[in-house]
Amino acid sequence: MTGFLLTLFFASLGSTVILTPLMIRLARRVGFLDHPGPRKIHAEPIPYGGGIVVALVVLAGSYWAARTTIWPVYALGSLMILVLGVVDDRRKLSAGTKLLVQAIVATGVALGGDRLRMFDVPAPVSIAVTVLWILA
After folding, report:
1. Cβ atoms of 32 and 48 closer than 8 Å
2. Which of 28, 114, 123 lies closest to 76 in space, CA to CA?
3. pLDDT tens-place string over residues 37-77
4. For 32, phi and psi rounded to 5 degrees?
5. What 3-state DSSP class applies to 115?
6. Distance CA 55, CA 82 (A)
7. Does residue 19 contact residue 57 with C-beta atoms inside 8 Å?
8. N- to C-terminal Cα distance for the chain?
9. What is the rounded CA–CA span in Å between residue 113 and residue 103?
10. Which of 99, 111, 93 has the alpha carbon at shortest distance from 135?
11. How far apart are alpha carbons 12 and 125 in whole angstroms?
């Protein structure tokens, strides 16, 4: 198991180190940049996209490590949150919109079969607590 985890770690690290500079170049080329502003500390445009690389590497690593039947639920939820982040970077969504999408994703995860079950409570209560747990 230790060898597997070390392999997973170094594969993830290597992938991130290789892909992040490529994403930075792509972001610059297509104008996916965070421009300086009065509420920002950087003086020059900074490329977005590093989080996309990290999210995809984590998603791939979790698939490689977990291989459970619930993984597709996590993957879909993770991809939806990733898309939310990219859209927010581009269009500056309101806090309410972001919270609504996060609540929908959290509900999907809970309904998809993974919810808190440490207490003997009815399913609707378990689902509600799970959604609140994920959102908090």
Report:
1. yes
2. 114
3. 888 898 899 999 888 999 999 999 888 887 778 888 889 99
4. -85, 75
5. coil
6. 7
7. yes
8. 32
9. 16
10. 99
11. 37
